[in-house]
Amino acid sequence: MTSLNDRIEVALGDITKMEVDAIVNAANPSLLGGKGVDGAIHRAAGPGLLEECRGLDGCPPGEARITRGYRLPAKYVIHTVGPIWRGGGSGEDELLAMAYRSTLLIAEENGIRTIAFPAISTGAYGFPVERASPIAVAEIRGFLEENGSIEKVVLVCFSERAKECYLDALSTCE
Ligand code: AR6
């Protein structure tokens, strides 16, 4: 039997280059673009993405919305909004878990088989990556366990530090 971790890959690099069915955007509730990975995705996808996002009427934290990928190699972008870190006692963990779950659910509903995630909330939103990575891994593993349709989840890291955190989180649950 294939182990769940065989369906999870850790990669270092720019998510906009990923050749997967869908990439995930760490957006803000307006869905109208921003800095970090959000800015990179909008730049790479081109103006069609912003136009489609304007029609979505935003997205509350913990939820997700899907659009096409436009000029990206990925066919779809799933936009989700993670929590802003406020010290850890304001429901941030659960909201982060919800953002992963909502995204995977939309992916499954749209027949997506391969999906790449950035480390949601760990940039401008200030969520410590060593606390975020085990939450991300637990949600993804839990989902893959119940759902056979998603074949591959790529955790895209923008730093060696994030990569180490993900590899640690994965190694503790093999
Ligand atoms: N590919 C992969 N990962 C990236 C890339 C990239 N091209 N660029 C940055 N990262 P952030 P957040 C990593 O700040 O914390 C935006 O302005 C980055 O190193 O993009 O959820 C939105 O509009 C970090 O590990 O998202 C919101 O206002 C991770 O992606 C706000 O930032 C997430 O960092 C959302 O903040």
UniProtKB/TrEMBL annotation:
Organism: Methanothrix harundinacea
Lineage of origin: Archaea, Methanobacteriati, Methanobacteriota, Stenosarchaea group, Methanomicrobia
Taxonomy, superkingdom: Archaea
PANTHER family: GANGLIOSIDE INDUCED DIFFERENTIATION ASSOCIATED PROTEIN 2-RELATED (PTHR11106), MACRO DOMAIN-CONTAINING PROTEIN (PTHR11106:SF27)
UniProt protein name: Appr-1-p processing domain protein
Macro domain mapped to chain residues: 1-174
GO MF terms held by the record: deacetylase activity
Gene3D superfamilies referenced in this protein's UniProt entry, alphabetically: Leucine Aminopeptidase, subunit E, domain 1
Coiled coil: none
SUPFAM superfamilies: Macro domain-like
